[in-house]
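dude i think i finally got it to work??
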Amino acid sequence: MAKLLICDRCLLYAHNPYLVCAVHLDGVDGDSCLDFREDPNIEPEELWQPEGATYYSLGNKEIDVYVVGKTPTINLAGIFTKIVET
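look at this
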């Protein structure tokens, strides 16, 4: 049994690292809870973005990235990776 994502917003949530809630001490079986009660005192999650922000997807582009530096013995060392921009 496990804690669900909605448990944090439930009126019965225990807010205890050892218990999930007052009804289901170890959590619930499955992906929903029949005893869920929305906590009226909980603050809504704030979803925002900067005013006037716009986002563009230019497709996928792979970029080769090399990170190079000197070791304590003055030898060069590095790693190579790829970054995928979307």
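The first strand starts at residue 13 and ends at 16.
im so relieved honestly
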